[in-house]
């Protein structure tokens, strides 16, 4: 029986690939046989990830890209096509979490959240989808959050712009999935629970009261560990999910069910 999870010969594009969950996913793609285009604003960090991927025997190209800027995205995708000639997988992972209620958030912080978390996903898809349509094949995986469907209580934990932007990711995922399935392009989203990353290490993980509450409520009694999101990402990026589209898979150790 062939390995439906094998990504040999595929080209994956990962945004926010310089650290955290994006870096882990990029390395996992390489482990399953894919070549990887690494996109983020910090080129020096991408160079490090590219070297790790090449050490696994796969090809990697690091590209400095601001996903909220159309010219930057257009140029980045053109560079990927010039280098690899195609895109099979797009992992829209780049994102930020700005704390604050609607009363506290500045307009600039609100706009920044929407620009990176929603507009960035739209722009990347805008320039990648035409190439997927040409080859009649594509896997788009959008990283949303459990905060698309649940919120954190308390003023000190409120992230209203983040809640809004991640709910919008679900909406765009469904819209694209409904349109592009006939082109053999699947579009799904993932809702991670709490994982340690640059985004959470200096905020939620340092909030003693929150961590105690999270671990107490979670059926897993802990946050997600490094690598525990990769299985879901590989599944949705591989032919194992060829008839799966518009789904939102929550990976949170059961936190959202209690």
Automatic annotation (TrEMBL):
The lineage of its organism: Bacteria, Bacillati, Bacillota, Bacilli, Bacillales. Belongs to the short-chain dehydrogenases/reductases (SDR) family. GO terms for biological process: bile acid metabolic process. Keywords: NADP, Oxidoreductase. InterPro entries: NAD(P)-bd_dom_sf (IPR036291), Sc_DH/Rdtase_CS (IPR020904), SDR_fam (IPR002347), Sec_Metab_Biosynth_SDR (IPR052178). Gene3D superfamilies: NAD(P)-binding Rossmann-like Domain. PROSITE patterns: ADH_SHORT. PANTHER family: 7-ALPHA-HYDROXYSTEROID DEHYDROGENASE, 7ALPHA-HYDROXYSTEROID DEHYDROGENASE. This is Short-chain dehydrogenase. The keyword Protease does not apply. The keyword Disulfide bond does not apply. GO terms for molecular function: oxidoreductase activity.
